[in-house]
Amino acid sequence: MITRAERKGDGFLLNEGQKCGSPTGRLPTLPFVWAKLDGEIKGFLVEKGTKGFEAPEMHGKHSLRASVHIRAHFSGLCYSSAESFAESGGLKSPLMCLSQARYGIAWGALGAAMACYDAALQYSLSRVQFDKPIASFQITQEKLVYNAD
């Protein structure tokens, strides 16, 4: 973890870090950032438009292109203490967030697999070879049917 936070008066200063692949960064809300404060991981909200915060959109992604991601950069961002999550601490907090996100990732992967199967099935029904759809050939049927053996 590169992003560091340090206490500045009643607030905090986030410096020298980045967050890659944030799917919520382009939304008109407050992006959430994990940073090390006194050697412990803490959570912070970053207000968009804050000096020292840049969030260019990531391009050239190979998968999940329907979700817009950003690559956020932080340098010299000041926050009030109200914008930190004092109860968050250690690696447990970010891992709890990831545990919740894994459900969405799993369902997204399952949905993508189902869409691939459906596309293959529809193609085999519409593709004609030797005057009949290729879905009528046993080898194609074997490929499209689940075999527990």
Report on this model:
- There is one protein chain.
- The protein is elongated.
- It is built from two helices and eleven strands, in the order E-E-E-E-E-E-E-E-E-H-E-E-H.
- It is α+β, with helices and mostly antiparallel strands and 149 residues long.
- The chain has a six-stranded mixed sheet with strand order 8-2-1-4-5-9, with no helix packed on it.
- The chain has helices at 92-126, 138-144; strands at 4-8, 11-15, 17-22, 32-37, 40-45, 53-54, 70-74, 77-80, 84-85, 128-129, 132-133.
- The mean pLDDT is 76.
Low-confidence stretches: none
Shape: elongated
Mean pLDDT comes to 76
What can be said about the biggest beta sheet? Answer: 6 strands, mixed
SSE string, helices as H and strands as E: EEEEEEEEEHEEH
Strand order of the largest sheet: 8-2-1-4-5-9
* % residues in beta strands: 25-35%
Oligomerization state: single chain
Q: Provide a count of the helices.
A: 2
How many strand elements? 11
Distance between the first and last residues' Cα: 45 Å
* Class from secondary-structure proportions: alpha+beta
Helix content: 25-40%
Radius of gyration: 23 Å
